[in-house]
Amino acid sequence: MTKKIKPSYIGSGLLTLIAIFIMAARPFSANLNDTGQLMLGGILIALGIWIFKPFNLSFSAGGLFLAFFALALGLRPAAVFSGFTQSSIWTLVPALFFGFTLQKTGLGKRIAMAIIKLFKPSYLSLVLAWVVIGVILSLLTPSSTVRVAIMIPIAVQCCELCKLEKGSKGNSLILLTAFGMAIIPGSGWMSGVLWGPIISGMINAVPGTQGLVTFSNWFSTLFVPVTITTVLLIAGSLLLLKPKEKLSDNAIDSIKNQPKEKVSRNEIITGIILVAVFVLFLTNKVHRLPDAAVCLAAVFLFFLTGVLEAKDFNSGVNWDLIVFIAIALSFSAIFTETGISLWLAGIVVPALAPIAVNPYLFMFCVMAFVFLWRFFDVALFIPTIAILVPILPSIQEAYNISPLVWLFIFVMAGNSFVMAYQNMWAMMSRSIAGERAFTNGHLGIYGVIYFAASFITLLIAIPMWINAGLF
Known about the structure:
Shape: globular
Number of strands: 0
Radius of gyration: 23 Å
Low-confidence stretches: none
Helix content: 55-70%
Distance between the termini: 59 Å
Mean pLDDT: 91
Order of helices and strands: HHHHHHHHHHHHHHHHHHHHHHHHH
């Protein structure tokens, strides 16, 4: 009996064959030099590894291959590894430590349970509780992974104490709200989600947009649209997923009567340091300390005070993710050095001409495309962002469309989750919840509500962006 070929092998194999053809035939020689075409082939192979993960290869494996390939072509190490020297990567590393510390000390769980106990017994109140929890945890750590790891187990506990039937609308509503509020509200400010250091690092590394994405620019561009999207998502979920049966008072009492534990020294220290970090982010224009410096100082204090130990250095950060993102941050330098940026701009910029004449037409068309593309780019959407970012200045020059409006496009599409495989945090949530996990059908409904909410939000956001001069 013949074995079936895995889809991951087929997808990565097709991209590899296309890459070999490009490197051998050099079909773009009229507009792209030999080095650029060879590099383009190497990038396609790396994309195949990132998107399809053949042989269970890690994200960093694809990044290491790309680095090897670029160096073998003669590219400067300073360009190939430029992502590792950007301040954004050294904001991202401490950010992951923040999340780990919040989880290790138990402070995140304490905050979540304390907030749930404040609300009265109803589906609406539990949904609002998760909103508050998601926002507060986003202020303390940009790690969506940690927020999911903290919030989903508590959501499962709530479902069990409320005696909600597995697979029911009520069960899915509680779990999906916890998942959604862990990844969406924090997108409104740059330090509230990992997209902040990742996307800002990519855009700020491109010639012509250096320093464009700051905390204040991110906040002024995204806070209102993300808030509107969140409100619409909550309203839609309560309309389409809210069950008819009411929660029993006994179930809510069992939640409120959960035993309290004494606040530890490490929790107090963690809370003080993380609040101080966020305050320093907000007051950056006064003290002028770089965000990376603030984050690194905070991690040093965690180790100095004993909240983190030497053994936590290896377990506190997903180094596979760091290598992957650092290589993605290097795309701008690699694209510039090989001429791929100019070549891509020559293709993409003219293709946008029919829709670039109107901000509404442009945003709706591009948003629709990237949401559909997310069914294929499942590598956190980072490869697509890394490819598009280097040509944003050319798009701005041609059509007066600021790279800042792309923040909404990248973040909203990056968070999409119509199907679980599109979103690593959706898969993580299902894994944590186990047999109590939300159903595929309910996730699909929630994902479609999010899709619709993002597009409705554009009707309000576009006039705001026009007034701000972004179009």
